């Protein structure tokens, strides 16, 4: 008699296969999930490397800004009106600089959050950072400053002072990168494309810029926006007197550098930087980090620290100072309401 065989129907075969898959899943799912969790936990970034990358991104973006301005191929457009009614410009310099800066950082560290003023829908750059750290950073900053990638937010401004850029007021123009960790500005880079100068600061570690020897806060020189001014003149005069010297200037990056030791003959100098209207975080984060690295402060007009995580908006105005009693300056300011500026 021929031996009896076991025959499975198609349904039985399907059930058997599913059972097998289920067994394999239960055997390996736990191992796989634990390895994924372990991998995620190990995704850290060395902040010294991120400082060097930020400098390279600002310089590469700056080259595009300078080239397009010198070639006079701005292709100027308007993004609309600001809350103060001024036209908000957009040029090819903004867009090309954005592509260079954004993709250099994102291609090197795809796991970190990068926020840029521009969001051009264009093909990404293939550039990846060489991991070469400039000697000036190696000399001042030791390595091993690693933080979880998920705690990092990078803010980039591909072209600060676009209005002035279209007017060929080159001294105001900068490209900027800021690295925030858990919302705190830690690394700031401000690059001047038309002079090639780059300022940087790393909070708690060092900087390549220095404050001036002294500042006058009794009768200060106050630097303010020339194109997004709002009611800043009357606000400043109420705080510091009708004879206060007010310096209108373009670009938040330029205005922060005005609080430091001058980098060139064209750089204005001021004792305090005040802004009373809406401003974006990519405009101010780099300057905030540099000032903090030197013991200075940048707060809202009510003296509150600015959180560089979450939304792009800073609605609380701005007061920046260095080597002064910042809290005392806040107390001298008149009552402030954003919707009245």
From TrEMBL:
Listed cofactors: Mg(2+)
GO function terms (MF aspect): 3'-nucleotidase activity; inositol monophosphate phosphatase activity; metal ion binding
Pfam families membership: Inositol_P
One Gene Ontology term from the biological process aspect of the record: phosphatidylinositol phosphate biosynthetic process
Keywords: Hydrolase, Magnesium, Membrane, Metal-binding, Transmembrane, Transmembrane helix
One CC-aspect GO term: membrane
SUPFAM superfamilies, per the entry: Carbohydrate phosphatase
Family annotation (InterPro entries): CysQ/Inositol_MonoPase, Inositol_monophosphatase-like, Inositol_monophosphatase_CS
Gene3D superfamilies in the record: 3.40.190.80, Fructose-1,6-Bisphosphatase, subunit A, domain 1
Segments passing through the bilayer: 12-33
Family statement: Belongs to the inositol monophosphatase superfamily.
Record-given protein name: inositol-phosphate phosphatase
